[in-house]
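User: Here's a protein and a ligand (S-adenosylmethionine). What would the complex look like?
Assistant: Let me lay out the input and then the predicted complex.
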Amino acid sequence: MPLHPSNTEDMFHTAEDILQPTQARERFREHFLVPIETHDQKWVDLWEGGEFLPWDKGTASPALVDLLNQQKENPIFVAHNHKSGPKTALVPGCGRGYDVLLLAQHGYHAVGVDISAKAIDDAQAWIDNEIQRLKAVGGPLPTGQIDLISGDFFKDDWVAQVGIDANGGFDVIYDYAFLVALNPALRTNVAARMHQLLAPGQGVLIALEYPLFRPVETGGPPHGIRSSDYDGLFGGKFLKALHYMPERTHKVGEGSDMVSVWVKQIPPKYSKM
Ligand SMILES: C[S@@+](CC[C@H](N)C(=O)[O-])C[C@H]1O[C@@H](n2cnc3c(N)ncnc32)[C@H](O)[C@@H]1O
């Protein structure tokens, strides 16, 4: 079973592959020109088909690799490093789980959830292979627990299954190509759900802002978005701790991707009069 799409012409390698109305871009767009209520099944169909997964890069996000390497000194991680129990991280819409393994290598109890059971099977196979490879070459092994689970990000059943509290149980959420994979009408729901899942005061949402180069009116997925849209979605309940252009990112976002990091604030206490 090939773990990577065999037809590389169907991949989104560069921004041009998404900006030009290529066959792959149009195929992806037309696949989702159906009512939003049926989109979950449309993702499942793509994974079951297995030959058209144009987003799949085959590696963890370089921008996340670099940010996690600052874990000791970057203030956004301080609270996690002083936690008594295991620190927890979630990758919504994890696909083949590349970023899940990376977070576990940094000590997180890392959870990857995907609506497709086939995606989760692929992720398990890829992570198992990768751990064997790392053992052979003496590479960094995961020190945190890994849970790969199929489920709907918006529902609570999968959170309970991994033994984490859906109300504030996660220290980190990493979003790459999940928020923008969904129809833009769902964005406020995604933001509210991420807020619910994160721990108050220390929970951080790390967002790889992408595809900033794509005009919103050209449709998706991935649907075009601007940094100001992230501000609008997360700025109210989260504190924006970082916003920068990463030195390294997936090729498709080079020169445009930004990283924003959002801390879930502790709700203000009401004092008695
Ligand atoms: C564009 S892909 C990105 C995958 C992965 N983050 C990556 O970069 O390779 C979006 C993923 O979200 C998943 N997905 C879509 N709707 C979902 C939902 N409601 N809950 C969980 N996963 C979902 C899809 O199956 C798909 O794997």
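Summary: The first strand starts at residue 88 and ends at 92.
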